[in-house]
Amino acid sequence: MLSILLRFPVIILLFHGFCWSEEGPNYSFMHQATSAPRISYYDYIVIGGGTAGCPLAATLSQNATVLLLERGGSPYGNPNITHLSAFGRALSDLSHSSPSQRFISEDGVINARARVLGGGSCINAGFYSRASADYVRAAGWDARLVNESYRWVEKVVAFQPPMQQWQSAVRDGLLEAGVEPNNGFTYEHLVGTKVGGTIFDGEGRRHTAADLLKYANPKRLTVMLHASVHKILFRTKGRKRAIAHGVVFRDSLGHKHKAYLNRGPKNEIILSAGALGSPQLLMLSGLGPADHLKAHNISIVLDQPLVGQGMSDNPMNAIFVPSPSPVEVSLIQVVGITTFGSYIEAASGENFAGGTTQRDFGMFSPKIGQLSTVPPKQRTEEALAQAIKSMESLEPAVFRGGFILEKITGPISTGHLALRNKNPNDNPSVTFNYFTHPQDLRRCVRGLQLIENVVESRAFSPFRYDYLSLPALLNMTAAAPVNLLPRHANVSTSLEQFCRDTVMTIWHYHGGCRMGRVVDAEYRVRGVDALRVVDGSTFHYSPGTNPQATVMMLGRYMGVRILSERLERSRRN
Ligand SMILES: Cc1cc2nc3c(=O)[nH]c(=O)nc-3n(C[C@H](O)[C@H](O)[C@H](O)COP(=O)(O)OP(=O)(O)OC[C@H]3O[C@@H](n4cnc5c(N)ncnc54)[C@H](O)[C@@H]3O)c2cc1C
Ligand SMILES: *[C@@H]1O[C@H](CO)[C@@H](O)[C@H](O)[C@H]1NC(C)=O
Ligand SMILES: *[C@@H]1O[C@H](CO)[C@@H](O)[C@H](O)[C@H]1NC(C)=O
Ligand SMILES: *[C@@H]1O[C@H](CO)[C@@H](O)[C@H](O)[C@H]1NC(C)=O
Ligand SMILES: *[C@@H]1O[C@H](CO)[C@@H](O)[C@H](O)[C@H]1NC(C)=O
Ligand SMILES: *[C@@H]1O[C@H](CO)[C@@H](O)[C@H](O)[C@H]1NC(C)=O
Ligand SMILES: *[C@@H]1O[C@H](CO)[C@@H](O)[C@H](O)[C@H]1NC(C)=O
Ligand SMILES: *[C@@H]1O[C@H](CO)[C@@H](O)[C@H](O)[C@H]1NC(C)=O
Q1: What is the C-alpha separation between 93 and 367, in angstroms, rounded?
Q2: Which residues does the annotation say bind FAD (predicted)?
């Protein structure tokens, strides 16, 4: 009883500052940037209200004043975000107000990045799964604080998915194919087969990183929406190293605002603009390869050739398996974690992602840019339009079935990012160099071979046509344009070629501000003061089978560490 009474005021404190309606919370601290003062001052300025930025800002606000600047709008009340059945709608909305911004890498693979408070967690497929203990060790993180931070996140956004027939058959097929043991439902990353978490609750409602702002102190946090940061400002006068001390951002009307750090040795700017946004903004602010910055007439604060290097995207390849029996609509729930560096996941059923009544393939729909029927370099606007047209003319029965996909760990192959122009709202140019490392290609081939075993398993037999062997599945293009076979003579004989030609993204791209290169072990940008990067751009490898759990964890984790450094400092002074 006493403990209940003691907890009560904490709960009130926690949930003071916003009211919850059917549309979600109406945070009292959330404003349109058009209402921002011309100049304002804070202890911390967080750039990017995404998957890492929201938990970070919420945490910092517990003991300091914080400004969170997000270029997109609020996710709340947006029907293209809030429900599982709407998956893909934001991704197929190519307008400037869309929560998703499409980009195409130089490799030719069509991809997407978030533009909304909550970031990628508002447009993604929802799978929630932690990083492995080995990953945590290699990152040099404090394992106890990592665990606490995951739990802090999970209390608000993570759920157990409902398991229906098709996903259960994939799970049992994986076990039959030897991906053992059965680890049941768990957030942990363990070799074997498991059911992972999801940010969709039992009613299919999406919970996002923006929901973590309910942990904020509403008196100390200010969130500005449609606030596009153009530049980080540095002071150099009388200093050996440049020190970040402010930012310039523009509101939706294009008006300029400046925000500065309060005076104080521990105040900082933290960049959480994602794997494309963070290296891009560092370059636009004068930190990057000197020659490249000079070519764009950007005055150099620090020649740092590693900014924008080490960009990676985990290649995804999938096989469509048509089913004689009905299947449920599911996004990723089951995952097979192999010892050879390939992860098997699956999604089933028809979807109506285009926002219309026309069926499509959800995570594998050309409407969201997934196009594996032609090799990457041939994925033109026309090819995409053609694929959408073919898909729309298919019989409803064709949509019965599911995709079994494999994503490789790492990857080892890397590329780079470069500016196209000086506008932070435009996409930079990105190259991922999929499969340039032979190990990546081997992992893909072994993943496909494992998928074949799953499809042929006894457990999966109700959901396959027995006369369709793997070569036939790979080679089904002619029969139904849904299949993933490129029109290419070599495919049925070479899985390597299949990997290269049908490569898609699972949107787990990362790098550009890697730890140990651009940032140090505490995520401080090397060579300058009062600036950190905390988001997926710091990763060497994508964590776990899917990254969002660890990105949210990292926001919380670094918030706690930065605050304790602050406390330490004030004790000493
Ligand atoms: C379609 C899709 C499906 C996915 N599926 C899954 C899944 O099922 N499970 C999983 O674990 N992961 C999934 N992911 C990956 C995961 O969502 C991302 O890795 C993660 O969200 C990245 O977090 P981040 O904080 O690094 O970047 P983001 O979440 O992208 O945050 C960056 C934020 O910064 C803002 N920003 C950028 N530049 C500026 C600027 N100049 N000024 C102001 N704001 C700026 C952006 O608008 C954005 O909100 C998926 C991703 C996508 C896109
Ligand atoms: C949210 O709250 C603000 C004031 O705090 C109010 O002006 C606005 O109308 C509210 N919006 C909704 C959708 O309730
Ligand atoms: C905030 O600061 C107070 C002391 O000023 C300290 O006791 C408390 O632990 C700090 N909270 C966090 C979350 O760091
Ligand atoms: C939702 O997405 C569709 C396209 O997928 C678009 O036409 C519509 O305007 C979007 N709605 C909102 C509220 O953004
Ligand atoms: C963190 O959690 C994992 C899984 O629950 C556990 O194996 C590990 O021992 C924990 N580590 C610490 C330091 O608490
Ligand atoms: C850089 O500045 C020079 C001289 O002002 C100009 O000629 C050139 O076009 C500029 N280049 C870019 C990329 O803006
Ligand atoms: C693959 O397709 C070609 C042409 O459509 C056909 O000749 C061949 O028999 C098919 N192979 C298999 C294994 O189905
Ligand atoms: C098919 O494979 C052969 C030998 O591996 C290769 O020389 C040829 O270029 C390939 N054809 C295509 C269209 O890729």
Answers
A1: 9
A2: 116, 229, 507-508, 536, 547-548
